[in-house]
Amino acid sequence: MIPVAIIGASGYTGLELVKILTQHPEFELVYVATSEGETTIQQLHPSLEGVVTMQVEKADASEVAKVAQIAFLALPHKTSMGFASQLLELGVKVVDLSADYRLKLDRYEAHYCKHTDTKHLCEAAYGLPEFYRNKIKESRIIANPGCYPTASLLGLLPFIPYIKKDTPIFIDAKSGVSGAGKKLSSTTHYVTINENIFAYNPIKHRHAPEIAEKIDELFVTQVEVNFVPHLIPVTRGMLCSIYMQLENELDPIEVLESLYKDEPFVRVRNNPVDIKSVAGTNFCDIYATMNGNSLFISSAIDNLLRGASSQAVVNANIICGFDETLGIPQLAYVP
Amino acid sequence: MIPVAIIGASGYTGLELVKILTQHPEFELVYVATSEGETTIQQLHPSLEGVVTMQVEKADASEVAKVAQIAFLALPHKTSMGFASQLLELGVKVVDLSADYRLKLDRYEAHYCKHTDTKHLCEAAYGLPEFYRNKIKESRIIANPGCYPTASLLGLLPFIPYIKKDTPIFIDAKSGVSGAGKKLSSTTHYVTINENIFAYNPIKHRHAPEIAEKIDELFVTQVEVNFVPHLIPVTRGMLCSIYMQLENELDPIEVLESLYKDEPFVRVRNNPVDIKSVAGTNFCDIYATMNGNSLFISSAIDNLLRGASSQAVVNANIICGFDETLGIPQLAYVP
Amino acid sequence: MIPVAIIGASGYTGLELVKILTQHPEFELVYVATSEGETTIQQLHPSLEGVVTMQVEKADASEVAKVAQIAFLALPHKTSMGFASQLLELGVKVVDLSADYRLKLDRYEAHYCKHTDTKHLCEAAYGLPEFYRNKIKESRIIANPGCYPTASLLGLLPFIPYIKKDTPIFIDAKSGVSGAGKKLSSTTHYVTINENIFAYNPIKHRHAPEIAEKIDELFVTQVEVNFVPHLIPVTRGMLCSIYMQLENELDPIEVLESLYKDEPFVRVRNNPVDIKSVAGTNFCDIYATMNGNSLFISSAIDNLLRGASSQAVVNANIICGFDETLGIPQLAYVP
Amino acid sequence: MIPVAIIGASGYTGLELVKILTQHPEFELVYVATSEGETTIQQLHPSLEGVVTMQVEKADASEVAKVAQIAFLALPHKTSMGFASQLLELGVKVVDLSADYRLKLDRYEAHYCKHTDTKHLCEAAYGLPEFYRNKIKESRIIANPGCYPTASLLGLLPFIPYIKKDTPIFIDAKSGVSGAGKKLSSTTHYVTINENIFAYNPIKHRHAPEIAEKIDELFVTQVEVNFVPHLIPVTRGMLCSIYMQLENELDPIEVLESLYKDEPFVRVRNNPVDIKSVAGTNFCDIYATMNGNSLFISSAIDNLLRGASSQAVVNANIICGFDETLGIPQLAYVP
């Protein structure tokens, strides 16, 4: 059993990490912390009462280093790199769920803030196993992708080799409200979003550069990515509808199947995908179809699992040389 | 008071027609029918108990002609043209909410079925007032647009003059469940669509040719329209997210405002639109923004009102020379 | 036209008052205020853009008195009595939507706070028209009932004459989230209440004494009232399920019909009631059935209309001698 | 590993049985059937694609007997007893999720239909482990309780010894829509129940006699049970609000804790319970409080798990002498 820690256990992704790690056959959750500390996990998350009982500490890197080999950071960006750099110096491997290690320095500083751990930034592996598996294996710091880039990249990357020159990609993403986190805002007030839907930060959302950077990194090709997120009246789940033009008509299901046939957590579907078939799991379900040279791709994930916590544990499995599927949720909540 | 009739009162759009027409200052609802008949409107729609009490007849064109000058048809396509042709022969003006008079003959027969009233088809005005006002004024048969084309066309038509040559339009439409009608299906079962979202008939939906035809008709330009409808867990309301490329960067709000500044039922918004601000009204709210040459347009309507029943009554107002806003709902249900 | 004012226009009930009063044939909305002021009504409520455009003032009783004959107060309790007492002194009639004038002094101070306008408290009429119509007519200060007491009292009062001696009443109330107001709280976060239901303040809720007091006042009988409110994942609407024991078996529909047959805003139903048939209206729909001596009553209202704003305007209609139904919403939003 | 079978795998409870049994450490799911057969489990339930792949047979008792020692029947009542009697004759133990073995003969025939397996009816143990554990251990036919009686009985049974003589119990139950099953009906149409709530079969629901019978059986006391189920806009989960009068005031939490302190699947809570804390688990969360002699109890379960499938597997664990918690879901889906 490898001892692991969670720093940032009060939010939704923290809760999901607790649920996965306490059931995992090879990880032992030995340390849980928040920035406040001094509580118990069942007080933070009453649904855990009688199932998981653990003290929640005030986060302290040196305490983590005494007991754990891997730390999962579910912290806000900026705070996260502070802990990550300390933990790495102390020899603890890090799976970071924040944005802090996802982008190259320039892009990060353009879209977030000044980076305070440039030393480790260049070492970080982007934790999308299907495309960065080998780099993840050798890294001690994993930048777990955001939910939007995860669903978008898994859907569109297979088609980058076929994209029509100089045409943009349009990503129309729809996210459940849990993606906005636990903090109170008028947007997440029930009355605002129930029976409603709206775009936010259209085209200017900071996930667009993350997606464009990874396309460039993997295919050495610069593509214009237009990303429009929408909030939908759903608790969890995310659907990305992706539109692009290809040089030639092709069978998109075949393209997907040839790339993903051996992937344990991508399911190529013959019909439009839905979020209920993946909510509760680490699966990304993908469907695609063409109209002439225009391609429509639909990809669905659980934003808190494949888009955060379960993908983080898959990355930890890879680091440790375990089977990627070990202890990873596969049974959807449906109905 | 002009006497009017509704044929097809059992569905959601029939109910909305009853509500608007019984409150209208210049129309008097004198005849209501369904294909079965022999009931009362308050039995069909228990919420009307104590407010509207009317006999519901078995639909009969000659009875309509005896009492009404205008008939609203809220019937399935194919059935609708049967009644419409009889009514027109008997001198009754028709506002048809079905698809039967929306398309040119070839397109109609390619996407629906054989047309049995080609005589009146060529007379029909497409009932989108902002673009077909003059033709509507002189017509006795109005093809009321579907909800998807209404929201799509109002959003994209202002930008057709600026579109980049040979580039497609992508419409990512999201509809509330009432758009699927009252009939039972596994798709409209609460457990299927609650906490869910999915595309259906992607790219192959028959509203794409309707949109393309109107673009061609108004701007004599052929544009590839890729239309992907999604079902969302919302009762009423529709949001269309439209993606296209323009020849040059421009101020899209200015384009919208210059075209719609005198339109009573289009509101150009400075922020992304939402469906709750229009649900319960005939408004179409529109927002647009650009990223380089890529344009994102967001347009929202109430699918049962602007997408069906209230737009139908606006068309009747135009036919009769009334102010277009007469008796038309403008106050959203929100919260 | 009688000039009227709204003080407290930023919340949900304030919005509903604006919608009703701007459509009312005999009231003219001349003054709208909030405690902050210096905005417009369409900025506070963007759905009103293009429909209602009015300046929103910083609330000032003497300004109200210059222009309006009746003021609707949609303010928090305590704040409300401050304004009400000033307005009354200045000759403005008041319909108060807060709790401040609903209870007798002792009860009020036991459940809320010290009362600072005892002078007018004893004059106040309880604004439940079906039972207090005559007193309302002669009053200049109306205490508009809360949503919970409105739905509860209309359901149970008809059966008080038949109640089994010394048996309690149990009220299981279910309220949509708009009843909790616009302020942010973890309870109204979408993720908390979506796919959920829970009781709050069970048995100890302060609406129980309000209900008990009115029973005592009307029937000179003291009944134990156990009131348990639940929050449900619905934006608007309230259902009260009431359980009590009667001395003898009787036909409860007959009891309801004989009492309410001439009431314009109570509909006695032959089947269990639902909230969608009343949402958007001032109706209270009621159904009742017995099992031996045990009675089940189900009553449904729109919590923001019959439970607040439209009932307030009915009370203003009564004060002014208008028909009670004048300008009052009767058409449900359904579907 | 004990080989087990599921007959009736197409519905929601069938799906939950598949999910639990394929993860169970001591049961091996060897046979799955529906009345139609000739499909695969992943076709019936697309979310299982890539996770569970099994042929689905046309149900045949003799085939079951060849391969399985225990059969779970998730069939409609009446159909179920047909299969159960055959299976029992063939030596297969049965956990029946239908109503067929829950009631004594007279009651069953009064509320359902003629019973065709009276031979085994008298042997059946009522599968509520907390109160029938010993009988379950020795039985070969278990009548798995319905969701309504499970939540109701666990909440109210601890207080039966203290009930005030000759006073009724009122149960106000709220069920998510999955409780109505997969079949299409106007009640389960999204537009009907979204943003709505209503009672159905009030006071006359056939779960009342089931509850009354078990009270009588366990405490030899006849109590009037008034049961009113409500449908709420939630997919899964059930909340029962129970009202009763006690002889004396007492500490209800103490009563609950003393009875349930060693129960693995009942959690006594100090605050009103909610369904999200139990959805996804076999837990029943219970809270209670008093007002004088009036008692309010609130109990919450997942209607498909504790109210059906996971309780069925707990019963199978008991039959086999396993730890009751073996393979039973304990981690709620929340958020």
Automatic annotation (TrEMBL), chains A, B, C, D:
**Boundaries of every Semialdehyde dehydrogenase NAD-binding domain copy:** 3-139
Gene Ontology molecular function, alphabetical: N-acetyl-gamma-glutamyl-phosphate reductase activity; NAD binding; NADP+ binding
Q: Which SMART domains match?
A: Semialdhyde_dh
Residues annotated as the enzyme's active site: C147
Q: Sorted alphabetically, which InterPro entries does this protein's record hold?
A: AGPR (IPR050085), AGPR_AS (IPR023013), AGPR_dimerisation_dom (IPR058924), AGPR_type-1 (IPR000706), NAD(P)-bd_dom_sf (IPR036291), Semialdehyde_DH_NAD-bd (IPR000534)
Name listed for the protein in its UniProt record: N-acetyl-gamma-glutamyl-phosphate reductase
| Metabolic or biological pathway, per its Swiss-Prot or TrEMBL entry | Amino-acid biosynthesis; L-arginine biosynthesis; N(2)-acetyl-L-ornithine from L-glutamate: step 3/4
> Gene that codes for this?
argC
UniProt keyword Oxidoreductase present:
yes
Cross-referenced PANTHER family, in alphabetical order? N-ACETYL-GAMMA-GLUTAMYL-PHOSPHATE REDUCTASE, CHLOROPLASTIC-RELATED, N-ACETYL-GAMMA-GLUTAMYL-PHOSPHATE REDUCTASE, CHLOROPLASTIC-RELATED-RELATED
Annotated family: Belongs to the NAGSA dehydrogenase family. Type 1 subfamily.
The cross-references to SUPFAM superfamilies, in alphabetical order and at most eight, read: Glyceraldehyde-3-phosphate dehydrogenase-like, C-terminal domain, NAD(P)-binding Rossmann-fold domains
UniProt GO cellular component terms: cytoplasm
Pfam families documented for this protein: Semialdhyde_dh, Semialdhyde_dhC_1
Function according to Swiss-Prot or TrEMBL: Catalyzes the NADPH-dependent reduction of N-acetyl-5-glutamyl phosphate to yield N-acetyl-L-glutamate 5-semialdehyde.
